[in-house]
């Protein structure tokens, strides 16, 4: 164990240092949260001076390098009614490298390093691989979803109901895509040995904001569904619906994210400092609740909305007061919410579990799997759950293939084709030739078809001459 006391702090006459090799067998491993799943993974050092020291640094050799999540702790005699316990107040972990953990503290007592046996080193790499691959798959599905929405937008937004449904889907996909991008940025910052606190706080802010935006746009979809189902005789204008939707979808998350960082950042309790993760702090300030409470509240509200809408549909029938296109859009919205709401609720319930119970390897793996499926479920329910979207995509694909095939045939097989004539019997019994098929002209890059005029149609019988 190495102890570094700055010269500016050397205002004492004597110092006593005692190092215990086996005191970990005597002192219990309970911490301030009464959690006993950790392990003392270094020597216990007792330092006493006849003065006051507010700046001291310790360097401990790690005893078991398979353990993770190191914490710098001291023995707090005031915990648990005088029984005492390990506490990390006033201590931070600047670095961990080459089997050595450095602890910086602003007071003196009995110190050691307390580490969680959460994920063995041999499993951390595969878990990171699963996480990054999963996020990559999710981002790929979201990009495909946005491309499809761009291609079919004019064909599937013919009424206000369909228009607002697709606005919500696009913003849900955009919010999750940007949140995943910032998640990767935050992970890259966390991997650095010396974490940039400003950059980590920035990444945490945007991750918090866009993940909240994802849930609030889910709430927008639920409220629009409730409005169209219950307020059947009230018609809000499209600009008004867009204004309310964007205010709720992005305004509410922005307010929550700004208040969270304004309250917790001055006390350096905005992000997690103990394990280097760029995410909201849980242990000291409970800043994570600024994400958990709104997200789970929206999940509950959307589930209640689905129950009300289902009751209304079964009792009255949504087809009695809506056009077929609008009725289909309402059914698609209800189906989308019925799938995405419990799925997102389960996913982020597991995400919270990874923060509050980091020692549970199963939660980490299941969360990584669910996280990788978020983009896929948005693509599935947001795009292909609507028959009109699927038909437009497949129709465009078949039409493009047909045009290319027809151009090839005209260019190479029948280059002299110009007109196709048919003969019809007129009212007077005579035979007249009419270019009802009009001219099919050849071009190097397209086909043109000129329809017959109404006059040409009226002058000819509908019964062909044999």
UniProtKB/TrEMBL annotation:
Family assignment from sequence similarity: Belongs to the G-protein coupled receptor 2 family. Adhesion G-protein coupled receptor (ADGR) subfamily.
Record-given protein name: G-protein coupled receptors family 2 profile 2 domain-containing protein
UniProt KW Transmembrane helix keyword: yes
Record key words, sorted: Disulfide bond, Glycoprotein, Membrane, Signal, Transmembrane, Transmembrane helix
Span list, region Disordered: 443-466
GO BP annotations, alphabetical order: adenylate cyclase-activating G protein-coupled receptor signaling pathway; cell surface receptor signaling pathway
Species name: Oncorhynchus mykiss (Rainbow trout)
Domain G-protein coupled receptors family 2 profile: 127-386
Pfam families in the cross-refs: 7tm_2, GPS
UniProt-annotated location(s): Membrane
Domain annotation GAIN-B: ranges: 1-121
